[in-house]
Each structure stands twice: as structure tokens, then as C-alpha cells.
Design a protein that fits this description.
Blueprint (H helix, E strand, L loop, with lengths): L1 H16 L6 H20 L24 H8 L3 E6 L4 H15 L4 E4 L19 E9 L3 E2 L4 H9 L9 E8 L8 H12 L3 E2 L4 E4 L4 H20 L13 E6 L31 E10 L8 E7 L12 E4 L5 H11 L6 E6 L14 E2 H8 L8 H7 L6 H10 L4 H12 L5 H7 L7 H7 L6 E4 L10 E7 L2 E3 L5 E3 L1 H7 L4 E2 L2 E2 L1 E7 L13 E4 L6 H15 L7 E7 L2 H4 L3 H9 L5 E6 L9 H7 L1 H10 L3 E7 H19 L4 H13 L3 E6 L1
Parallel strand pairs: 1-2, 1-3, 3-5, 5-6, 5-7, 21-22, 21-24, 22-23, 24-25
Antiparallel strand pairs: 3-4, 8-12, 9-10, 9-20, 10-15, 11-14, 11-20, 12-13, 16-17, 18-19
Length: about 675
């Protein structure tokens, strides 16, 4: 309309200037013409208004406080417990230590280093009697956990940082079966000291291959008196139960606002939006679920997940993380034992309103959803859970035993080891065996650890299967000392993921975790792959990729496979695929150890020693890359010892020199391990 009205204005001014030149008739005609034009302009169809799109009602993003110093000042806290956690244990220990602070007359908070500005550590001296505790787990081959990666980078990069006002201590979580035992905790402890911080208590080393809980409890017992002494405060040692969350029941709530198993965003399983990660997993349909072993008691399986349209990318050697759910029969059993309605909608709200962690799991939700999707109900509970729940046992004997197991006395530790750990008792078993124990379900839900994602080495190559991810796993099932049958949560859940279930496609919530377990950059480098049992998984991807490279006309180095299983006719996994790869020349050597097909057990390390000349030639002369996947406790150590022997004998070295030689291969990325215990 603006442009048209300006045209009218210019026409009117022109008429005024030339009016004297016109006759009366001319004036009449011009007036008529102007009137027609004006009428046309004023009454022409107006242009369509541009529609205004109504903004979606999205909640305003909550501003998250990234200054832990300001938060501590605001809430009167003097102790902060940072955690580096991959499976939830580091976070659990951090929460326990922050609760402990209250028992000793101090105020603590647990904190995820990923959520805060760690450069503020130098400012902690602004808070009187302040202390930073670091519960740091080591992941993979001496790596930081995902949430501690930025903190690790910051420590490495900031040589000029002055942390002289920082009081600190570190508790490390690791596993002795791994090469780089507690590497992250040791590094943080050493690095903070190098930057001028003051260590007020010795580094604690927790070993998950032994008894991590006992290691933590023993360290913690000595730690708190030392802290009290350091700050000159009296150790109150208040042993009463401290609640972190309060329950709220929702009697009238829109069920669209209730979480039904989503990990992050509400209704994220109904409306899937990339990118997909740990907080936003993709629901991948299961397209294949078949048994791999021909016979035997065990169930080894091969699954294929469809990632079409997800924009998910992966490489050979990466891990797929899946979010399992607990068996509904166990969830119902827990509800029966506690005599509660599991379908009540609740929220567990943090009593500390300033905490970044508002709920222990997504809320509002039902107890059934929490116990199915969010909480680990099958692992043996830690001592702090027993201690907190003891008050709810009506039988004084049960109460006494629970408190004893949570104590540091030798008798208590022995009872916890035998009655809980060695007997593989879950919280359900404890409630069954202690009928007088009837805790409120909300307190139990507060204490139980989160159900964690499970990681599997991907058994396919994206070059060959860009829209599919393959998993190879063995179903975990065993009998306990109490005569019960315990089943692995994730593997039994995967086993039951049929391609179609009552006409519906079965789906698996998943995301990709990148790995350092990679084929050599140069395809001409030989590779030696050692993977007995389900340790073959990543090598199926490697073999597919080397085959694809050959098809592209690329020159590919020797590809050697060492596989092991119990019996050739029972659990020779992927036999047809491996023999076909050997036949076509993709595998230049296939060595299989059938451990129980003869009187004396034969393992992969025996085959390595048998082929020592070829192994040494490939490694020492042809720059071969060595890959090991599988059991960390025995196999990986035995294989490493075999490489020491081969290096010592054929390299003419002492054992010390041979050990150094293999360690250098590790440093150069030519000896890689993807192992578990």
C-alpha cells in the first residue's frame, strides 16, 4: 500500500502546477479521471498479509549457573566433590562424600566438571575452610571419562595456572586388570600438586577387580578425621540418615507431561530429532536377531540395528551404547515385596533448590517407570544403601546385621563380602531374605544407582553397512550361592528383542561412542587381530573393511586373525564368514584355538607362540598393528606375556627390554586393546 499512495501524491502535485493551462472542461475531465484512479487505488484488492507463525510454546531455557564459586557462596557450602564418571559409580561416591560433609558439620555439593568453569579452582581460597575432592574414574586405555574430558584438557594446557590456594584430595576408581590402572586419578592428583595445590589427604586407589566398595569405605574412614584435623573442626560424626530428595505425588496431572522411559527430553521417543547422543538416544529397529552358536548351554547372539535416516555415522572399532530395561517380573516383585502401587505418578525433588540436579532421574514419572528404565535393581547394593535402609527393619537382628555390614569392622566387612557380594544378592533378594525390612519406596528409589547404558564393540563396517550396526554378545545367566538364577540385564533384554513383537518392530535406544580402536591409516600396514569369543566383534568390522578396500582396488597389507572358542562344533562364531574371508584372500591367515576339543586346553596365546617367526617379522619388519579384544583379566594378560616372550626370544632382548619394546608399540598406537573384565 505504501508504494501506491505515493503515486497518488505525485499525481496531485502535478495537477496543481498545470491547472492554469487547462480549460474548465479539461479540469472536469481530469477531475473525473483522477477520481476514477483514486477510486481504483483505494478499492483495489489489498495484498495478502504475510501470515505470522505462532511461536511454539517452548519453555524458556533455564540459565544454568556455571560458577561453582558463586553457587558455593550463595548456599554456604565449603566442600565441592567433582566426579569423573562413566558408569555412575564415581558420581555415586561423590554424592556420598557430599552427604558425609553434613555429618561432620560442613556443607558439601557434588558437581559434574562438565557443567562448571574449572578455571575457577584458583578462586576456591575465597571460601574459608574450603576443599575440593575429586572422584575420578579411568575409562578405556587410561582415558578420562566423557564428562571429565574438558577438565583433563584444561589441566594439560594450563601450565601457568596458580592453584596455591586450593586444598584438595583425590579418590581414583579403576581396575587392576587394565594396563593403565587408575591413570586418570593419578594424573589429577599429580597435576594439581604441580600447579601448586595443597594435597590434604593421600590419593585413594579403588580397584573394581577386587572390592571397590571396601577400598572406598576404608579410604573415607581415614579421610574425614584428617579433614577435621586439618581445619581444626570437631568431628561430629552424626550418623543419622540424611535425605537428599523429597517425594511429591501427582494426583491430577496431564499424562503427556509424565516421563515414560525417555533419557533426556520428554516425548523424545515419540518425536525423534538428531543429533543422537547419550542424552538423546535413537530408537533403532532390530532387523536381525539370530543365535550364533550351533550347540551348547550358552546363548551367543548376533543383532542388527537399523539406523536409516538417523544421520548416525560410525567407524569400525567404535562402540554402540544401548539403554536396557529391567525385567518386568523383577519390577513387579519389588512392588509386591514393598506392598505399593507402582503406577502412582511421583516426582523426587532435590531439597537443595540451588542444585543443578533437580531429580535423581527424569520426573515426573511412575515408580514402575523408574524401576524399569532408570534404576539398577539387580546389582548388589553398596554399604551406604544398607546403612540408610537399616532403620526400616522392624526385627532388631536384621537392623543390627545391616548396620554391621555397613561398618568398617573386620567382622562387618567379611559379612558384607560373603552375604551380599559373594552371594550376588540384589536389593530384591535382600528384601526377600529380610522380611522385616520394609523401606518406603521413595527412599529406596533415592538410594538405588541409575541404570547405565551398556557398551558393545560394533561388529560391522560402515563402508559395507552404512545403515546398520551389528552387535555380537553372549547372554549372561548364572546360579548364585543361594540357589537363585541371576540374569544379565542388557543381554537378556537384547535376546528378547525379536524382529517383530506382536506385529510391532522391536527397537533399541542407542547412540555411538567413538573409540581409539582404529585400523591403521595406511591400508598397506599388516594387522594382527586377537579376539576369542565375543572379542571377535570389532574384527568382523575390520575384516569387512579390509575386504571393501581390496574391492576398491587398494593395496591391503596382511590381515591375520587369531580366534578362540571352546568347541569347533558349538561356538565357532561367524565360521562361514571367516572361512569365506580366508578363501577370498581378505584374511591372509586364520588361526583358531578350540580350547576344549582336546585333552590339553589350547588358547590363542599358544597359537601366537607357535607362529612366532611370522608374528615377529610382521611386527618388527613390516610395521604391523596389533589388536586385542576380549577378557582383560586373563586373556589380554596372557597374550601380552606371549608378545613379551616372542620379542625377548626373536629380538634377542632381555625381559625388561622386551617389555619396553611392547610398551613403545602401545605408545605409538600399534598395540591396541578393547578389553573388559
Amino acid at each position: 500500500m505504501t508504494r501506491n499512495s505515493s503515486c497518488v501524491e505525485s499525481g496531485e502535485s502535478m495537477m496543481e502546477e498545470e491547472a492554469s493551462l487547462f480549460s474548465s472542461l479539461d479540469i472536469i475531465l481530469v477531475t473525473l479521471l483522477a477520481g476514477v484512479v483514486l477510486y481504483f487505488v483505494m478499492n483495489r484488492k489489498k495484498p495478502e498479509p504475510i501470515p505470522e507463525f505462532k511461536k511454539l510454546d517452548t519453555p524458556a531455557p533455564t540459565t544454568r549457573e556455571t560458577s561453582f564459586i558463586e553457587k558455593m557462596k550463595k548456599t554456604g557450602k565449603n566442600i565441592i566433590v567433582f566426579y569423573g564418571s562413566q558408569t555412575g559409580t564415581g558420581e555415586e561416591f561423590a554424592n556420598r562424600l557430599s552427604k558425609d560433609a553434613q555429618r561432620y558439620g560442613m556443607k558439601g555439593m557434588a558437581a559434574d566438571p562438565e557443567e562448571y568453569e574449572m578455571g575457577e579452582l584458583s578462586r576456591l581460597s575465597e571460601i574459608p575452610n574450603s576443599l575440593a575432592i575429586f572422584c575420578m574414574a579411568t575409562y578405556g586405555e587410561g582415558d578420562p571419562t566423557d564428562n571429565a574430558q574438558d577438565f583433563y584438557d584444561w589441566l594439560q594446557e594450563n601450565d601457568d595456572e596458580d592453584l596455591s590456594g586450593l586444598n584438595y584430595t583425590v579418590f581414583a576408581l579403576g581396575n587392576k586388570t587394565y594396563e593403565h590402572y587408575n591413570a586418570m586419578g593419578k594424573y589429577v592428583d599429580k597435576r594439581l600438586e604441580e600447579l601448586g595445590a595443597k594435597r590434604i589427604f593421600d590419593l585413594g586407589l579403588g580397584d573394581d577387580d577386587g572390592n571397590l566398595e571396601e577400598d572406598f569405605v576404608s579410604w573415607r574412614e581415614q579421610f574425614w578425621p584428617a579433614v577435621c584435623e586439618h581445619f581444626g573442626v570437631e568431628a561430629l560424626g552424626d550418623e543419622s540418615s540424611i535425605r537428599q530428595y523429597v517425594v511429591k505425588e501427582h494426583t491430577d496431572i496431564n499424562m503427556n507431561k509424565v516421563y515414560t522411559g525417555e533419557i533426556g527430553r520428554l516425548q523424545s521417543f515419540e518425536v525423534q530429532k538428531p543429533p543422537f547422543d547419550a542424552k538423546n538416544p535413537f530408537l533403532a529397529p532390530v532387523t536381525v536377531n539370530r543365535r550364533l552358536n550351533k550347540a551348547g548351554d550358552r546363548h551367543l547372539m548376533h543383532l542388527e540395528l537399523d539406523i536409516t535416516g538417523s544421520k548416525i555415522r560410525y567407524e569400525s572399532g567404535d562402540h554402540v551404547a544401548v539403554f536396557p530395561t529391567n525385567d518386568s517380573a523383577l519390577v513387579n516383585k519389588l512392588g509386591q515385596l514393598l506392598g505399593v502401587d507402582l503406577d502412582v505418578v511421583i516426582s523426587l525433588n532435590n531439597l537443595d533448590e540451588e542444585s543443578n540436579k533437580k531429580h535423581p532421574f527424569p520426573c515426573p514419572t511412575t515408580y514402575r517407570t523408574a524401576l524399569t528404565h532408570y534404576l539398577d535393581i539387580t546389582q548388589s547394593p553398596r554399604t551406604n544403601v544398607l546403612y540408610e535402609l537399616a532403620q526400616y527393619a522392624s526385627d532388631p537382628k536384621d537392623q543390627e546385621n545391616m548396620r554391621k555390614m555397613a561398618s568398617s569392622s573386620p567382622e562387618g566387612k567379611a559379612l558384607y563380602q560373603s552375604w551380599v557380594l559373594d552371594s550376588c544378592r540384589s536389593i530384591i533378594h535382600i528384601l526377600e531374605d529380610m522380611p522385616s525390612l520394609k523401606p518406603p519406596i521413595d527412599h529406596l528409589c533415592e538410594l538405588l544407582p541409575r541404570l547405565q547404558a551398556r557398551y558393545y564393540s560394533i561388529a560391522s563396517s560402515s563402508k559395507v553397512h552404512p545403515n546398520s550396526i551389528h552387535i555380537c554378545a553372549v547372554v549372561v545367566e548364572y546360579e548364585t550361592k543361594t540357589g537363585r538364577t541371576n540374569k544379565g540385564v542388557a543381554t537378556n533384554w537384547l535376546k528378547n528383542k525379536l524382529v517383530t513383537d506382536n506385529g510391532h518392530k522391536s527397537t533399541v535406544p542407542m547412540y555411538i561412542r567413538k573409540s581409539q580402536f582404529r585400523l591403521p591409516f595406511k591400508a598397506t600396514n599388516p594387522v594382527i587381530m586377537i579376539g576369542p569369543g565375543t572379542g571377535i566383534a570389532p574384527f568382523m568390522g575390520f575384516i569387512q573393511e579390509r575386504g571393501w578396500l581390496k574391492q576398491q582396488g587398494k593395496e591391503v597389507g596382511e590381515t591375520v586373525m587369531y580366534f578362540g572358542c571352546r568347541h569347533k562344533n558349538e561356538d565357532y562364531l561367524y565360521q562361514e564368514e571367516l572361512e569365506e574371508a580366508e578363501k577370498t584372500g581378505v584374511l591372509t591367515q586364520l588361526n583358531v584355538a578350540f580350547s576344549r576339543d582336546q585333552e590339553h586346553k589350547v588358547y590363542v596365546q599358544h597359537h601366537l607362540k607357535k607362529n612366532k617367526e611370522n608374528i615377529w617379522k610382521l611386527v618388527n619388519s613390516e610395521n604391523a598393528h596389533i589388536y586385542i579384544c576380549g577378557d582383560a583379566r586373563n586373556m589380554a594378560k596372557d597374550v601380552q606375556a606371549a608378545f613379551y616372550e616372542i620379542t625377548e626370544e626373536l629380538g634377542g632382548m632381555t625381559r625388561t627390554q622386551a617389555t619396553d619394546y611392547v610398551k613403545k608399540l602401545m605408545t605409538k598406537g600399534r598395540y591396541s586393546q578393547d578389553v573388559w573384565s
